[in-house]
Design brief:
The chain has 237 residues and is α/β, with parallel strands linked by helices. The chain has one domain: Spore Coat Polysaccharide Biosynthesis Protein SpsA, Chain A (Alpha-Beta Complex). The chain has seven helices and seven strands. A seven-stranded mixed sheet has the order 3-2-1-4-6-5-7, with helices on both faces. It is globular. The protein starts with 5 loop residues before the first strand and ends with a helix.
Length: 237
């Protein structure tokens, strides 16, 4: 029996990902042509450098159903995700990062698990392909958020997701940093959203540099996590 085909909005937050975003878009287009009835691809340019802007302009002339949203000032990872979520037009939203640490072709795995009884198909990394220190920090972040927010999913930090657009109705996402993923999953879970998880491949970063792994950002992340915990687990009880 052939799987149901959905209308899908796929988007990538882009920040100086000139070296990887063309292949990401082409792979996403290939996957979408296979699994979607109708689709669009959205690139959220979060005030990238001129080289990246030139690459995006070239892509816009070659890729059908491609839309580019440009931030005149950098809004952060969370700000880029919000632009994608709230500008998507189709019933399902797929997103992943533009740095090629995930393979858009694996979107097919997510679509296979989407049914009328599922709201979010959440990827989880089979094996994290990052430097050792990032793996350690990542595990600490994982366990801390799981304890604080009582997650049922195994990988809140895996940005490879297929989500029903209706989940964003009447939900206010506040954070503009990477904390938005914890905020989003917490608020969805509080509303009774139904999750399914799928293993996905994680790759070494081949271009660009992570914006998250420095002391200042890690400290800020800790402060934001505590504020979010208070808002969701204490204030809203």
């Amino acid at each position: 029996m052939e799987n149901k085909k959905y209308n899908i909005s796929a988007f990538f937050p882009v920040y100086n990902d000139w070296g990887t975003i063309p292949s990401m878009v082409l792979l996403a287009e290939k996957a979408l042509k296979k699994v979607a009835a109708n689709y669009e691809i959205i690139l959220i340019d979060d005030d990238s450098n001129n080289l990246t802007k030139s690459v995006l302009e070239a892509l816009s002339k070659k890729i059908e159903n491609l839309k580019i949203i440009t931030h005149e000032k950098n809004k952060g990872y969370g700000g880029a995700l919000k632009s994608g979520f709230y500008n998507a037009k189709y019933e399902l939203i797929f997103y992943t990062d533009g740095d090629a640490q995930y393979n858009p072709l694996e979107l097919e795995k997510l679509v296979e698990k989407m049914t009328d009884y599922v709201d979010i198909v959440n990827g989880y990394k089979i094996s994290r392909q990052d430097p050792f220190y990032r793996k350690i920090i990542g595990r600490l972040y994982h366990y801390t958020t799981k304890i604080l927010f009582k997650f049922k999913i195994r990988d809140v930090d895996c940005d490879f997701r297929l989500i029903r657009k209706s989940l964003f109705d009447n939900i206010n996402l506040r954070y503009d940093s990477g904390i938005i993923c914890v905020e989003m999953i917490s608020k969805f879970a509080a509303r009774g959203a139904r999750f399914v998880e799928v293993p996905v491949t994680h790759y070494f970063r081949v271009s660009g540099k992570s914006q998250f792994f420095n002391f200042k950002r890690i400290f800020r992340t800790g402060v934001h996590l505590l504020k979010l915990w208070y808002q969701i687990r204490i204030k809203n009880k």
